[in-house]
Automatic annotation (TrEMBL):
Pfam families: Ribosomal_S5, Ribosomal_S5_C. Belongs to the universal ribosomal protein uS5 family. Residues 1-20, 216-235 are annotated as: Disordered. It comes from the Eukaryota. GO terms for molecular function: RNA binding; structural constituent of ribosome. Residues 1-13 have a biased composition (Low complexity). Residues 226-235 have a biased composition (Basic and acidic residues). InterPro entries: Ribosomal_Su5_D2-typ_SF, Ribosomal_uS5, Ribosomal_uS5_C, Ribosomal_uS5_N, Ribsml_uS5_D2-typ_fold_subgr. Keywords: Ribonucleoprotein, Ribosomal protein. This is 30s ribosomal protein s5. It comes from Trichosporon asahii var. asahii (strain ATCC 90039 / CBS 2479 / JCM 2466 / KCTC 7840 / NBRC 103889/ NCYC 2677 / UAMH 7654).
Length: 255
């Protein structure tokens, strides 16, 4: 049926009896033909990931290939739900261990977000920024041959022992991930008390990073240390070196 010459027209058009809605009465393709030579546009997520990796590289001094080649292990995943008027609002918490066996670096980070993927990305970035150097003996084991390296974090106690070449890693699985990430190949370890993954990792990192200050060591900058047992006297610097797993450094009191 032929249409009027003024069709379509709105309420202010030529034809006052025309409908309020408009009609398009000529063929329009739904999809435009795609040019095969036109490059595909990059997605927004890839651009954001590249920017974050470039920022991490600038802060840590690692190249893009080194950041991609880091060892990553998820230590713990936790989900929490908060009841609101809109329902249960869930959020995820991820603890991740990141390390470089070639450089002897290891660290742990925590990320929290409503999306699991974004929580993992946050945990990875925080772990990379928290990486610290692990002083390894012969690039294969910890210092302190013949003595135990002991640290305590809350109710968790970790004991790490140096072992000869070819011994391997006779350690619990969570400590195995830490030592694999930092490049330790020969060691044994024991966990006493609580076996919470986060507490065990924090306790083990105290020993490996060397920032652990055992009782009696003083302030670490020349301050006095207290006696451990009455009548036993002060411990020697060799005792502290064995307990800390590294050599002591004499620092002048005037800082």
């Amino acid at each position: 049926m032929p249409r009027r010459p003024a069709f379509p027209a709105g309420p202010r058009g030529i034809d006052p009896d025309a409908p309020l809605h408009k009609h398009v009465n000529f063929p329009v393709p739904f999809l435009r033909p795609v040019d095969p030579n036109h490059p595909k546009p990059e997605t927004r997520g890839e651009d954001q990931a590249m920017k974050q990796m470039s920022v991490l590289g600038a802060l840590t001094g690692l190249s893009m290939s080194e950041l991609r080649g880091l060892h990553k292990y998820v230590a713990k995943v936790m989900m929490a739900a908060h009841q609101t008027k809109k329902g249960k609002m869930r959020s995820f918490g991820v603890w991740m261990i990141v390390g470089s066996p070639e450089r002897g670096l290891v660290g742990m980070g925590r990320g929290r977000d409503e999306n699991m993927g974004r929580a993992r990305d946050k945990a990875f970035r925080h772990a990379v920024l928290a990486m610290d150097y692990v002083n390894r003996f012969e690039q294969r084991t910890v210092w302190g041959q013949g003595s135990d390296l002991v640290a305590q974090w809350r109710s968790t106690k970790v004991i790490i022992r140096a072992r000869p070449p070819g011994f391997g890693l006779q350690v619990p699985h969570i400590i195995h991930r830490i030592m694999t990430a930092c490049g330790i190949r020969d060691a044994s370890a024991t966990i006493e008390g609580s076996r919470s993954e986060v507490d065990v990792v924090n306790c083990a990192l105290q020993i490996l990073h060397g920032g652990y200050n055992p009782p009696g060591f003083g302030s670490g900058t020349g301050g006095k240390g207290r006696k451990q047992d009455k009548g036993a006297g002060m411990r020697s610097i060799k005792d502290f070196e064995r307990q800390r797993g590294r050599f002591g450094v004499v620092v002048d009191k005037r800082l």
